[in-house]
Amino acid sequence: MEEHPVLARDSCATATNLADQIEKAFRYRGDVTLRLRGGRHLTGFVYNRFGEGADAFVEVMLSEGAGSVSISAREIEEIVFSGPDAADGKSYEAWKAKKNKERKQEAEKIASEMRRQGFL
Fold first, then answer.
1. Which pLDDT value is given to residue 4?
2. Which segments show compositional bias classed as Basic and acidic residues (predicted)?
3. 89, burial (CB in 10 Å: exposed 0-12, middle 13-18, buried 19+)
């Protein structure tokens, strides 16, 4: 999958911009890669964020299944959307169509059973 950078600190990012980008990463329903100071990087799902400014942290469930970590926003140099959005293409309209199909199938099943028992 192609990676899409969200934020690079060397592109005049402000603390407010970083907070906005952390919020976008939190709302994204797929994995992100956090590129950290010192050349480190972590890939996982951002499931929580708290604090403000220099005291902000993000909590990431690591994609390798190695648990979760809390990372200071000060350590983040770049945020990349690196995994597919799990809800991409799953709009409310698609959900309604699926539910209506399931309801119709259930109604047909009940009607068939009632006919078998002689009620219809």
1. 53
2. 103-120
3. exposed
